[in-house]
Amino acid sequence: MSTTPTKPVAPADAVIIPHYNDLPRLERCLEALMLNDIRDTEIVVVDNNSPVSLDDLCASFPAVRFITEPEKGAAPARNRGVRETSAQRLFFIDADCVPARDWLAVGREVASRADLIGGRVNVFDETSPPRSGAEAFEAVFAFNFRRYIEVQGCSGAGNLLTRRDVFDEIGGFINGVSEDREWTMRAVAHGYSLIYEDRLQVSHPARQDWPALRAKWRRTTSEGFQLNGTSPAKRLKWAIRALAMPASAVVHIPKVLRSDKLTSSGEILRAITTLIRLRCQRMVWMLRQAAGGTI
Fold first, then answer.
1. With 60 as the cut, is the pLDDT of residue 2 above it?
2. Is there a contact between 155 and 116 (Cβ–Cβ < 8 Å)?
3. In this predicted model, which residue has the larger pLDDT, 229 or 199?
4. Which of 29, 40, 187, 247 could form a disulfide with 12 if both were Cys (CB 3.0 to 4.6 A apart)?
5. Which residues, 6 or more positions from 86, have their beta carbon under 8 angstroms from its beta carbon?
6. Residue 236 forms part of a structural domain
7. Could you tell me which of 78, 106, 103 has the C-alpha nearest to residue 202?
8. Contacts of 26 (CB under 8 A, 6+ apart)
């Protein structure tokens, strides 16, 4: 008597990690992930054709599947990761993030509360004290996911939980814009719920110096302009926002002064100086964009 083969049962969870050319941080991410309960979980690293070999990492983490996505960008890497997995629950984390020991457990516990859930991103230093201006600035201002979600109605994908049916309904991440912000805003526009969960935690290293911080915000400003729109009315709105940048620095100085994350007057001064410098730099970039130029 013949029997019908049993269809394999899909894992409950998938963890999708986009990566490009940052092996030490990817290794740190995977080591922390292995401290979680990864039973019934498929873990996929989607590499953007890094110029260095991942063979040693492949050997060190047999529970992880490594896939190459030749199209550059976190958006196509995340999309490829979704396609390569079968779980209904999708955890997104970036390769330079460090998940907490209970990251997966908390995600499983709260998953039914909303269609999309963003969590807390703590900032840590990779260098010895004292903090640089960039590190001090990031300690105060970087990765405020609660505000992104509860005020702006969007979330980053460095710490994001959702479901496959949501992804299938609204489509994948779009390259060339702030792909996580756009994707979560699109999901909310489709009627899906987005909440913040403080217990869903990962950590991210602070940018160490001005060139690294400048590069981050140059990319963010470029992506933000694409989301803003390029019609004459939208450009005018962008220019007005640009002119408000120096004033916004002044408004945010008290936040630096009240922060319990800075440990000396030197760090406070460097954070304030970097805050003012960065907001003025963003003003220049945004005015160029509004006038039709590039940054």
1. no
2. yes
3. 199
4. 40
5. 10, 11, 14, 42
6. yes
7. 103
8. 17, 19, 45, 57, 95, 96
Q: Are 44 and 137 in contact (CB under 8 A)?
A: no
Q: 262 and 118 in one domain?
A: no
Last residue of a domain, one of 182, 205, 228: 205
Q: Chain centroid to CA 128: how far?
A: 25
> d(Cα 64, Cα 176) in Å, to the nearest integer?
28
Q: What is the pLDDT of residues 77-110, one digit of tens each?
A: 999 999 999 999 999 999 999 999 999 999 999 9
Domain encompassing residue 194: 13-205
Count Cα neighbours of 237 within 13 Å in the Cβ-side half-sphere.
10
Quick one: residue 41, left, alpha or beta (phi over 0 = left, psi -120 to 50 = alpha)? beta
Dump pLDDT digits (tens) for 237-282.
999 999 999 999 999 999 999 999 999 999 999 999 999 999 999 9
257 Cβ contact list (under 8 Å, min separation 6): 268
Same domain for 20 and 138, yes or no, is: yes
Q: In this structure, what token pair is assigned to residue 133?
A: 């201006």
Counting every residue, how long is the chain? 295
131: in domain: yes
